[in-house]
Amino acid sequence: MLEVKDITMRFGGLTAVGGASLKVDKGRIVGLIGPNGAGKTTLFAIIAGFLDPTAGRVIFEGSDITPLPAHERAKLGIARTFQIVQPFAGLDVRENIAVGAYLRHARAAEAHAKAEAVARRVGLGGDLDKQASSLTVAGRKRLELARALATEPKLLLLDEVLAGLNPSEIRDIVPVIRAIRDEGVTILMIEHVMQAVMNLCDEVYVLAQGKMIAQGTPREVCVDPHVVEAYLGKGAADRLRAEEASHA
């Protein structure tokens, strides 16, 4: 469904992403992980059309969409959430979700009906008349997810949708994400909560200092020495092996 080919993004003399590539097959949940500042959100912004890459291509369903702006990609079926959740504070939950629904439903009644259906999918069915500003952090995360879902995407880009949630809130939202995939939406997600990555993702890519350093199943990448060193520093993989040997 999605192929990112040799994407490079430079900001002046800084290379935020350097020749990164990944693939997402239809019907899968793919994770993108890496240390803070690795370039993950920059890569998401390029896939969604918010940034034009310095080099490389973005292929969606076999077509090169690199020149297309974000709104054209949304029409094709690409939606994203944002790491920093900013709902329209003056609108209620129904109206916030309807903002996304208007992409495919021009009439207000249809957009609101779509918003209500999506709200139920993500667990906000009882909050439709609440002001968005009154929601908890977990509620705002669900609202962000709902607004993206209301655009009826084929590919959903989730940027740290679990960040800031406590363990019970994470446990509650993981089945919601899995159900979205089961209903036919392919998912690419940036996430730091490794428990969720292990539970949800079919495949994981690891980005560090703008470069892809590993890919594989969640279990494979967790024990990859390059990944361990990217998170814990040079020599960490050798130290862990030495500790395991001493306990054996």
From TrEMBL:
<dbReference type="InterPro" id="IPR032823">
    <property type="entry name" value="BCA_ABC_TP_C"/>
</dbReference>
<dbReference type="GO" id="GO:0005304">
    <property type="term" value="F:L-valine transmembrane transporter activity"/>
</dbReference>
<dbReference type="GO" id="GO:0005524">
    <property type="term" value="F:ATP binding"/>
</dbReference>
<dbReference type="GO" id="GO:0015192">
    <property type="term" value="F:L-phenylalanine transmembrane transporter activity"/>
</dbReference>
<dbReference type="GO" id="GO:0042941">
    <property type="term" value="P:D-alanine transmembrane transport"/>
</dbReference>
<dbReference type="GO" id="GO:0015188">
    <property type="term" value="F:L-isoleucine transmembrane transporter activity"/>
</dbReference>
<dbReference type="Pfam" id="PF00005">
    <property type="entry name" value="ABC_tran"/>
</dbReference>
<protein>
    <submittedName>
        <fullName>Amino acid/amide ABC transporter ATP-binding protein 1 (HAAT family)</fullName>
    </submittedName>
</protein>
<dbReference type="GO" id="GO:0016887">
    <property type="term" value="F:ATP hydrolysis activity"/>
</dbReference>
<feature type="domain" description="ABC transporter">
    <location>
        <begin position="2"/>
        <end position="234"/>
    </location>
</feature>
<dbReference type="InterPro" id="IPR051120">
    <property type="entry name" value="ABC_AA/LPS_Transport"/>
</dbReference>
<keyword id="KW-0547">Nucleotide-binding</keyword>
<keyword id="KW-0067">ATP-binding</keyword>
<dbReference type="GO" id="GO:1903806">
    <property type="term" value="P:L-isoleucine import across plasma membrane"/>
</dbReference>
<dbReference type="GO" id="GO:0015808">
    <property type="term" value="P:L-alanine transport"/>
</dbReference>
<dbReference type="Pfam" id="PF12399">
    <property type="entry name" value="BCA_ABC_TP_C"/>
</dbReference>
<keyword id="KW-0813">Transport</keyword>
<dbReference type="InterPro" id="IPR003593">
    <property type="entry name" value="AAA+_ATPase"/>
</dbReference>
<dbReference type="GO" id="GO:1903805">
    <property type="term" value="P:L-valine import across plasma membrane"/>
</dbReference>
<dbReference type="InterPro" id="IPR027417">
    <property type="entry name" value="P-loop_NTPase"/>
</dbReference>
<dbReference type="GO" id="GO:0005886">
    <property type="term" value="C:plasma membrane"/>
</dbReference>
<dbReference type="InterPro" id="IPR003439">
    <property type="entry name" value="ABC_transporter-like_ATP-bd"/>
</dbReference>
